[in-house]
Amino acid sequence: MILTPDEIELLELAVEDYSELFIAEWRLRTLFPDYSDFKLKQRAQKAIHSLWTNELITFFYRDSWIGGNYTPVLRGQEEAVLDNAENWKKPSADDTGYFCFVCTDKGDWVYQNDAQVYTYLKQVRRAY
After folding, report:
1. What is the pLDDT of residues 66-113, one digit of tens each?
2. DSSP 63
3. Total structural domains in the chain?
């Protein structure tokens, strides 16, 4: 499996913890600081959709910031989630919920064992 740098960056987020959609956009800003918010969101949408399609991440809707329940997003619903601009906004403390993503067992295996992922992370930003 060949992953793009965007996909590797967002897979790393998903391995670390549940990540809100707006965090994906912020993460890509570290790579592309001069890109517009619109362009970053497009890149994040594309990478997240690919990770989802390859079953490396899964989506959840969390109904509250504190102590909320996680409801899985079903296959076929991901495009509606990713295409809705409201889902990409940073929730305020008053918001009732938000969408997030986390890696699957397969995603964790790829992150931990794929030579391409290791090489990218070592060369681009992180020493192992």
Report:
1. 777 899 998 888 889 999 988 888 877 766 788 999 999 999 999 999
2. S
3. 1
